[in-house]
Amino acid sequence: MEEHQYDTPNSEELELIYAATEDLSTEKKNQSQTFAIEELISTEETYLSSLELCTGGIYEHLSEKQLPNLDLDGLYGNIKDVIEVSRNFLTKLKTARTQKADQLLLISNAFLDLKQDMENVYKEYCANYENTLMLEKGYQQDKDLWQEIRDTLKTVACESNANNLSFFLVKPVQRISKYPLLLNMILKNTLVSDKFYTNLKEALMAMEEVNLNINEYKRLKEVANKYNKVENLTLREKVGRISKHSCAKKAARLSLYIQHEAGIVPKTEDKEFELLKENFFILEKAVTQLQESITAYWKCLQTFLSFKPYEFNLGITEECAVTYYQGIATTLYQVIFPIFIGRFISLVYKPLCTLSELFIGPQQLIKKHSDKLLDYEQIEKKMSMSGDVTYEEKAAVKTYKAINHLLVSELPQFNQTVSQFLVQIVQGFIVIQKDLAQSVLHTMSFSMSFLIFQLPHCQLPLFTFWQVIEEILEESNKQLSSFRETFETAMPTPVIQPLSPFGKTKLQSLVEKHGPNKIFQVTCNIIGSKDLDLTLQKGEFVAVLQNTDIKGNKQRWLVDAGGNRGYVPAQKIQQYHLLENKDPVSNTLLVPYDNLEKRRHSYSITEKPLPHQNPPVPFYQVFAGYAFTARSSHEVSLQPGQPVTIVEPYDKKGNLEWNLVEVNGQRGYVPSNFLVRKLFPWAAGESTES
User: Fold this and answer.
1) Which residues contact 460 (CB under 8 A, 6 or more apart)?
2) Cα–Cα distances in Å, from 133 out to 54, 140, 166, 167, 264?
3) Mean pLDDT calculated for residue range 521-544
4) Which of 91, 329, 426, 665 is the most exposed place for a label (fewest CB within 10 A)?
């Protein structure tokens, strides 16, 4: 058999073969790269078209139907911001399509330039997407409403074959996660030696980071949504939640909290968070007070507008003047005032009520932050001692860190936004008040000059005019006095209500402890919203200890509620005067000063002036009952039996558990329960020998 001879290629032939193979590989990569770039741009165009159809045709069609119970803003979220970012991004990609030489650089820069914008809008949209699905699921239960939505989809977006809105609304969630895949495809088909390879890799890493941040933000929002809801549970449901585990957890929190307050265990302090929380509660108080004032204004305005004086006989004989007055009043009450009311409700009242409701979620989250912080400190202590924790404890640590991170990152923006809205509401109120005044003056200017000359006494000399005015006022005063006497005669004598046994005991204790001049009564229910605030019921008695708080706020008073001490709003308590009764002191009733003076003539009560006594002032000396070692420069050390001078019976936050004292010329804070007060048998001002 004849053997076939094969020539072995030399080195030059091998180099030619390798070069040809490499050229084929490079050409194939370039084709794949071009295809990947075109896929990125074309799919972005399709994506943007779908979003514009969703927000344009579908949104507008549903808005025109004005369907009840359809929350379009809740469904769509911030999709308009997503569209704006996508438009900017597509513009940059189209520019890159025409610039072949620097195409990879322009694509990389498009991602890098819009990285922060993409993260901001997509993380908000993706976090709200679960709420979108819940809303749509709820709308599917309403057959009529869901049929209207499907009819809109068939009319506006029939080519898409969409059966629900989530067909469009899910696209942003899918698109942001697809950007790293598309970039990776372009990068794989780019030579490492390409001068723009590093830029592409940086863009890929940026998009991966954006997706990681979005997922982390979604996790934080899920934790926040779990705890910021206000649950209106019945007593049976609350009792049903009690278990050994919950009781043990709450007992551990309470124990650690007491140790913090007693100074036994140092408390973890986060100055940044504490400052944000303080600003939050200041804004909450400002919004609450403004809402109360605006609500009172609105009630007074409704009462004012309920009267129509132009429909009554005004006692003016000149028919022309009456006609002009009635015309002006009719214009005010039927045209100008209704316009003002509409602007007041839409620009001031409703926005303020909505702004007040925004505080509910952060309030719950801040409260839960305090609880989780106690759990976190206990777990950290356990980890430092044993180095081992359970899976549940690890989850608790993650939960605390998530809540803390969310509050620290979101509270500054929340406080800033609320401040801006609050300023805008106040400015809006000022503007509508000015517009009301200008409208009234404009209406009056047309006929006021003629009306004045038609009124009585307008031609009298000035001296005579004032004499007439004085006579009219005197006559009106007589009529008012006569009406008052008739009214007082017809009014029944008020009945003094007896106090309950508990109320008598509490009142007697407060009077003996603080004296009758410091007794006040709560005029409406008080719900404490801050640390050291008291929660009191209407009608309870308190003794005022100080008419300001530690910051000098005169609207927040320190009171003794018969055991508990704390702060209450000054406008919600009223001073009462102790009247003599046939019963002993424990059965006396306190009557407010204002009512006493106004109604003194309505009934007769024999008042017996309280005897003027100067009771001896007991002399107290304060000593250190236990040894205390200062742990910082703000504290001072004590030795048992050491004399102490109390400078302030509370700390800078008003906490009565710590006292500012002076010992041996040094000032500092010590726990109040470490001090002992000794009563000496002589009164102040008397000698020790007596």
Assistant:
1) 468
2) 16, 11, 7, 11, 50
3) 84
4) 665
Q: 125 and 173 in contact (C-beta within 8 Å)?
A: yes
* Exposure on the CB side of residue 631, measured as CA atoms within 13 A: 8
Instruction: Give the right CATH number for 246-454 from 1.10.8.640, 2.60.40.180, 3.90.1210.10, 1.20.1270.60.
Output: 1.20.1270.60
Q: Using alpha carbons only, what angle is made at residue 63 by residues 62 and 68, rounded to the nearest 5 degrees?
A: 85
Tokens 């549903």 appear where? Answer: 62
Q: How far apart are CA 678 and CA 615, in angstroms?
A: 19
Homologous superfamily (CATH) for 618-683: SH3 Domains (2.30.30.40)
Q: What is the pLDDT, as a whole number, of residue 12?
A: 60
Model confidence pLDDT, tens digit, residues 378-425:
888 888 887 777 888 888 888 888 888 888 888 898 999 999 999 999
The β-bridge partners of 591 are: 577
Q: What is the dihedral of CA 82, 85, 90, 93, to 10 degrees?
A: -130
The percent of residues in the chain predicted with pLDDT above 70, rounded, is 81
Q: What does the longest C-alpha to C-alpha distance in the chain come to?
A: 153
Domain 11-227 CATH class label: mainly alpha
56-70, 185-199, 312-326, 619-633: range with lowest mean pLDDT: 312-326
Q: What does the DSSP assignment read for 317-357?
A: --HHHHHHHHHHHHHIIIIIHHHHHHHHIIIIIHHHHHHHH
Residue pair 525/538 in contact (Cβ under 8 Å)? The answer is yes
**For the residues of 523-577, what is the DSSP string, one character each?**
-S-B---STTB--B-TT-EEEEEESS-TT--TTEEEEE-SS-EEEEEGGGEEEEE
SS3 121: helix
CA 348 and chain centroid, separation: 17
Which of 170, 43, 179, 195 lies closest to 112 in space, CA to CA?
A: 179
Instruction: Tell me which of 1.10.1790.10, 1.10.150.20, 2.130.10.10, 2.30.30.40 is the CATH number of domain 501-602.
Output: 2.30.30.40
